[in-house]
Amino acid sequence: MARFCRTFGSLTRAGVPILTSLEIVRDTAGNKVISNAIEASREEVQSGGMISVAIDQSKVFPNMAIQMMMIGEETGELDAMLMKVADFYEDEVEQAVHAMTSMLEPLMIVVIGGMVGSILLSMYLPMFKVFETLG
């Protein structure tokens, strides 16, 4: 979603026509479901519909993004709204990755501790056996 909004917003800000922008965004989406939804919305826009309404019909994009696009279309600031949506979703992804790494850190410490403990046991157990037989 962030990639779609960032690319689409950048293209519209640069003055690229909407239909051309939708073609480019469709090709750079990286997800077949999203690409199909963008293509369907492109056809709807080509026949005279609003972008936000056309995208909403696909039921693929989140409501918040669609509402922001609708506001951007009504105010004439579609590119600015798309950039805000892209910033929001990029921040959301960043927070999710941070939360996931925070959860993985203790697990990694336990795994590494287990590996170090097993190496120490494999080194010292034979020495203890030798000491028992000698002593």
Mean pLDDT: 90
Shape: rod-shaped
Uncertain segments of ≥5 residues (pLDDT<50)?
none
- Rounded to the nearest angstrom, the distance between the terminal CA atoms is 70 Å
Helix residue percentage: over 70%
Strand fraction equals under 5%
Our count of helices gives: 6
* N-to-C series of helices and strands: HHHHHH
Sheet/helix structural class: mainly alpha
Rg is 27 Å
- Total beta strand runs: 0
Largest pleated sheet: none
Structural features, described:
- The protein is mainly alpha-helical.
- Helices cover 84% and strands 0% of the residues.
- The protein has 6 helices and no strands.
- It has helices at residues 2-13, 18-28, 32-46, 51-56, 63-75, 78-134.
- Helix 5 runs antiparallel to helix 6 (78-134).
- The radius of gyration is 27 Å and the shape is rod-shaped.
- The model has no long low-confidence stretch (mean pLDDT 90).
Helix and strand topology:
Blueprint: H1 2-13, H2 18-28, H3 32-46, H4 51-56, H5 63-75, H6 78-134
Helix pairs in contact: 1-2, 1-6, 2-3, 5-6
Question: Which tags fit this structure?
Answer:
single chain, 135 residues, mainly alpha
Quick take:
Helix content is 84%, strand content 0%. The chain contains 6 helices and no strands.
